[in-house]
Amino acid sequence: MGNALRFLFVKCSKTTTATGDSDSLEPPYRPTVSGVSAFAHDLFNFEITSQVPEGLSQHVVSSRKAQANWYGKLLQAWREAKPPPKTPEMVAMLVIETLNRHQKADVEGLLEFYGLPNPSINVGIYPRMRTRLPEPVLFEMHTLPVDGNTVPDGDGINVYVSTVDPRESSIVPRDVLIAADQRSKARAKKNYDKADELRQKIIESGYQVINLQNEQILARKYRIRLRGIDAPENSMPYGEEAKQELINLVHGKCLRVLVYGEDRYGRCVADVYCDGIFVQEVMLKKGLAWHYAAYDQRIELATWEREARAKRIGLWASSNPEKPWEWRKDRREAVGSVQHKIT
């Protein structure tokens, strides 16, 4: 780790122009190149001394103790980055990704301190650094903070993803962008009836304008179906308990969502992580969901269900709990029978 930082520090310090004349390098290039070097130098210094750089407090609002916490996280992130970031943009993204949950003023102040580019995006909705995804995963999402009131049951979540995200920004319908712009102008003129009308148009298109940190964020709505588990329906025993546990897990949190496909209801079938915690694992271990083996044969899911069964916790307190897929089938058949009699 130390060698990698020393190498980058030396490499970035020896800046040259395209012609190789280091003396001819003029602003604005010098600040950003030296910023990468300074950042690497300060991480190297922190690794040895646990001290944050002098002067940083003039750019950020948090205490030096908090700053030390940041540098510990940044040092770990640098260790895990392969290859280590070598450009101002890459370093800025590492800072943004690592300090995603910290105050906006602190993140922007840190970028300013090193002369690194600032995307001017809210903390909590910065585009994430792209990593290679497992082969079955179609795409990855990072959500805005989840509103627990939008959780429908124990295995579903409604989430919003900022359209600032590179993947989202390329697929926003033009009429949604126009409506969002017109709504902003209507609000500025205090024409709230018009603004509400435009907001409804945005919602009907599958988007929403969300107030986050006193800024209006255009975001796309996704309905998520937790992959590999099946929780009791709300009206079943332990259905409400499962729903409440899921709310407790995700409310107010930004989620990492790995999407594997789409079900027949248009929901994204996905693995969901909250603060590094695998949500499906929690639901299974607490006995609030079944392993949905018909659609997912992962051994670990079966193991977590088996452990909960052995402990007789959650729905396994019952000797023979009804399976939610059988419960749904019975309800469909009952409805079909009634409709047949009517016709």
UniProtKB/TrEMBL annotation:
<dbReference type="Pfam" id="PF00565">
    <property type="entry name" value="SNase"/>
</dbReference>
<dbReference type="GO" id="GO:0005737">
    <property type="term" value="C:cytoplasm"/>
</dbReference>
<dbReference type="InterPro" id="IPR035437">
    <property type="entry name" value="SNase_OB-fold_sf"/>
</dbReference>
<feature type="domain" description="TNase-like">
    <location>
        <begin position="151"/>
        <end position="318"/>
    </location>
</feature>
<dbReference type="GO" id="GO:0005524">
    <property type="term" value="F:ATP binding"/>
</dbReference>
<dbReference type="InterPro" id="IPR009080">
    <property type="entry name" value="tRNAsynth_Ia_anticodon-bd"/>
</dbReference>
<dbReference type="InterPro" id="IPR002071">
    <property type="entry name" value="Thermonucl_AS"/>
</dbReference>
<dbReference type="InterPro" id="IPR016071">
    <property type="entry name" value="Staphylococal_nuclease_OB-fold"/>
</dbReference>
<dbReference type="GO" id="GO:0004518">
    <property type="term" value="F:nuclease activity"/>
</dbReference>
<protein>
    <submittedName>
        <fullName>Staphylococcal-like nuclease CAN2 isoform X2</fullName>
    </submittedName>
</protein>
<dbReference type="GO" id="GO:0006418">
    <property type="term" value="P:tRNA aminoacylation for protein translation"/>
</dbReference>
<dbReference type="GO" id="GO:0004812">
    <property type="term" value="F:aminoacyl-tRNA ligase activity"/>
</dbReference>
<dbReference type="GO" id="GO:0003676">
    <property type="term" value="F:nucleic acid binding"/>
</dbReference>
